[in-house]
Design goal:
251 residues, alpha/beta, 4-stranded antiparallel beta sheet, 9 helices, 10 strands, 33% helix
Amino acid sequence: MSHHIVEVRNLRHVYPDGTVALRDISFRITHGESVAIIGANGAGKSTLLLHLNGFLSPTAGEIRIGDYPLTKATLPEIRRTVGMVFQDPDDQLFMPTVYDDVAFGPLNLGLPGMEVEQRVKDALEKVGAGHLRDKPPYNLSGGEKKRVAIATVLSMSPDILVMDEPTDGLDPHARRQLMALLKDFSHTKIFTSHDLDMVLDLCSRVIILHEGEVKADGPALEIFRNEELLAGCRLEKPLSMQGCPVCGGKG
């Protein structure tokens, strides 16, 4: 069996106020795939991601990681397998220092001190945040918080990386760093993003959500060339695929 497989079957989620956020969502992501889940604001993207390691519970349907259904009993193991980076890093940072935040997960795994130290060092270096190690998170900029939040997940060495708007708040240099990191991550990765050029660069597969339903699931280039589909889902082509607005030439 592979821990890297994510399967969603007939997933439905209704919030307490009656809002139907997800309607009968089904897909299967296999080991090593890089998949972007895109859609307009309110399409259900963040709600979907929050189900993938149990932060939200389905109203109906099932989620499986490898051969195991996501249940209360399997949740601890699944959260070690599926690393989740939230859109808002303040939801992820709560310790006195950056080091403490990045070390929190490995310490809770019961790892020895030397290994925890090495994992923190490696994770912070990967996101270019080694110099932030001893700073309190509340003193960081938005982009710095984002990088540290990513490091808190990388320190857990997840088999599946799930990220909600990973480039949101990053400057161009940090964005390039993150893209290089994601290219080097050889396991399964799933993320939402309005940065469609990043999606085109990193993902061979795209799933479009529209009003809580899967409207398309297929090769990224094929989907981004379907202007009628994109327009119907309130999306546009990546900038790199659009013609020059001045000369009319191809991007």
